[in-house]
């Protein structure tokens, strides 16, 4: 949940146009206009756009790559935006807009790997993959995400059907999930652009390998971190076979192992990048979500996973699914809950509500209700548990459970919401990347011990830097650490 945006940016790189533009293609103007219209909402939905030198750096690398996409006026029509998101992801929107998260940048080790990612996404646009997959688009508004996640508890379409109209009213923004063949094609196009722009095309395989390793490590950590799977793993199918195919495609360019990597220049731009959650949006630590600026904390039941979003926190587990958010309070708690339910259903699905119930949680007045909704996949229980935080602010959980379960699977979570002290809030600091120079006597173990985590320190260090347990460190070599930074005022 976001309270303030972060910052970021970049340096200019000269763009060399493609050798021949005889068969340049123009982007569909309707797509361009729609992408421009949706851009502010997209940015807000994913944590805000970063500005400054690093963002400009990403933009310049993107434009250098896009010049070889065969798109007319590529330097003007393609837009590359860095998002303040803790999810490892990059995606493209028809109309020339490419987005990359700071979290994904954090696992890269040089500029060539960045160039491959933006080239891959540019390839999706240049090859018009969106048109081919239009029918497979997924609504990614906050309610749309909730529907997609919550649907898993009682069937893929239950909650999605329940709130689809509301989700569409909230946001018409759509992202596409491409086919495996389209992903491979985008890899090949990205590799082609890499080679043409003077980068080492081997960066494709090394970047995909980084993603495979990062996804595997995140899967191992999940049980302890209670964080859901990185988005890249679900929208961009990863495998060692895909890494091998990228390596073969790189060799076919005849430039494998040649060209720019620009490692030091990239690492200089990466210095200070926030990783994981931005405290300004709240942080997930173990089973707890804590927001230092809002001075609140709650804890999910054992075995549940969380995903921190711009406007809400999504919780999922075997017993049910939920989402936490808040809003302004005017009138009665009953009317507030009624408004939440109307937004949830768009007024198109009837929910048979039980009586409003009153209670007190950690000295806060609370109101809750459970209703039964009949869907095409069967009956489900929909609940709202709302807290009067202060005179004009309410926070609430929306839950979905199997019919008959009601709010029971989340009872401990409802009772855990509390205010935190000023000292607790002040103790929460962001994790940032610190690029350090290996000195004499430094070892993998000593450097890993400086990582700002209580667990998996060695695994995190090796994965972050693309190293193995047998890697040798050389004095003067630069490596990335994740350390605690300072809170922005």
TrEMBL record:
Chain ranges of the LysM domain: 434-481
GO-annotated cellular components: membrane
GO biological process entries: proteolysis involved in protein catabolic process
Pfam families from the UniProt entry: LysM, Peptidase_M48
Key words, A-Z: Hydrolase, Metal-binding, Metalloprotease, Protease, Signal, Zinc
Requisite cofactors: Zn(2+)
Gene Ontology terms for molecular function: metal ion binding; metalloendopeptidase activity
N-terminal signal peptide: 1-18
InterPro entries: LysM (IPR018392), LysM_dom_sf (IPR036779), Mito/Outer_Membr_Metalloprot (IPR051156), Peptidase_M48 (IPR001915)
Protein name: LysM peptidoglycan-binding domain-containing protein
